[in-house]
Amino acid sequence: MRLKNKSIIALVEDDFEDLELWYPVLRLREEGATVDLVGKEANKTYAGKYGVPAESDKAFTDVDVEAYDAILVPGGWAPDKLRRYPEVIDFVKAMNVAKKPIGQICHAGWVLASAGILQNIKVTSTPGIKDDMTNAGAVWFDEPVVIDGHIVSSRRPPDLPPYVKAFADMLAES
């Protein structure tokens, strides 16, 4: 259990991409990590794009970001909502300053773009937001996983196995 003492924030909001939230959460928990689902409200059930529910463990206001080792941002349409919360932007900025692992997949790049942390950072995302990523200053690649420092990015659900492995490996080494 190489991630036994690691704590991770997994952001959640309605219309998250079901696999892009649950696959990483379950894999990281299998490796021993504590993964808290964090949304606007605690103990609220959020619905995935395809109907898989996720109940938040904590609200944004309940979280001390410094107590966590990493953050995961799922894709789907949730990132367009998540990036509107000042707390989420603050979480991402704090993780970036601390050089803690930040995982983003698919449309999750919108959150990092809104946090203003992508200048000259190599990333990937769903091709549909390539322009948003490059306009935010990122250097975009069409690859299953791109790692630049402490940021691990991926394109879409078929890329989940290498994405989550890369994220878990980074977390284990941090």
Automatic annotation (TrEMBL):
One Pfam family from the record: DJ-1_PfpI
GO MF annotations, alphabetized: peptidase activity
PROSITE patterns: PEPTIDASE_C56_PFPI (PS51276)
Keyword set, alphabetical order: Hydrolase, Protease
GO biological process terms, semicolon-separated: proteolysis
InterPro entries the record matches: C56_PfpI-like, Class_I_gatase-like, DJ-1/PfpI
CDD domains per UniProt: GATase1_PfpI_like (cd03134)
Limits of the DJ-1/PfpI domain: 6-167
Top-level taxon of the source organism: Bacteria
Family stated for the protein in its record: Belongs to the peptidase C56 family.
NCBIfam families given in the database record: PfpI (TIGR01382)
Protein's recorded name: Protease
